[in-house]
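re: ur question from yesterday

yeah so i grabbed the chain u mentioned. its 351 aa long if i counted rite. heres the sequnce exactly as i have it in my notes:
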Amino acid sequence: MKLFFIMLVYLLIQSCSDNKPTQEETPASQFLPPSALDTTLSLITINMAVGFDAERMITKDLTKPQLVLEEGLYLYNQLKESMPNQRIKVLSDSIKGTMPDIVALQEVLLLINRHNSDTIDFINTLMKELSTDYAVITQVMNPLDIKVNTSDSISDSVNIYFHEGNAIIYKKSALSLITVDSLTYFFGIRNIKYLNTTISILRGAQYAKFSSTKGTFINVFNTHLEVESVPLLGMNQAFQLNDYINYKVSNHEAVVIMGDLNNTANSSTLRVFKNGNFFDTHSDPRELSCCYDIVNIDVPATRRLDYVLARYIVNVNNATVRFYKPFTNITNGLQYRISDHAAVSADLSFH
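ran it thru and got these structure tokens back, copy pasting raw so excuse formatting
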């Protein structure tokens, strides 16, 4: 309760403060053009979509083995129906076609069905498709074993391990990795009763500091915040990330936040970052990034939840929402999207 009132007072102070211009309000035309000494990098962020509704489990009574069995089988079958390996192949082809310097990924899934050794590994599958010029940094979140037998029949049992998380892919010919770190948000969905124990669904952030071939330092944070529908949770995570950034990064070094912030541009969550001198590199309100249906391509996007935020950079050369075209499954002839999110990209120049 005390934390709630602290956050409320903070937001009231911010809303009553002077309307002085911020970097977010500065039109792109006022940026200085990049010089020969500046570094220009191409960045893309996309939520890969695990392909099933994991949060649906928190609405069920997971103390009952039969319900755990039903939910485990439902999620596994839902994932298989989303054609994960084909989705990753299409994403890899898109990355190879544009050759970005940094790719930030969320909902990076590993799932192993121990009954049939079926393994779905988003990041390893993707990295095998990309050139050896790319390297990856991963952050594992929410590991869970779903292991239940309700009878001696294998049809009445489930034995699945999965985790999801974040990943930063970077081009080694353009960037040298200096340091990495990660953060698990304190604020999350905790203490869900699960069989004879409890589980949590937590979010996190990755940090990577790079040096370009011209000696420019770039600090990249990749994150996945909680959904807007959970009151104050995403905003509290934003406060924690903002403090973490200020702790990790020296004054006036270039910083980029990439990821699925699960909040719209005018939300209190995004205000936290804007008050920390971050601006949205993509400002066209007509281009939306979420939320599609992977298996029903006629479902339109309704809002933008994915961002490339920046501070202390020289210029935004290009920023857009990338709409990857649906692909046709060669087995059943149906069309699918690679994710329920579109990607957001930006070409940024740094001193």
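noticed a couple things. The first helix runs from residue 2 to 16. also The first strand starts at residue 39 and ends at 47.
anyway ttyl
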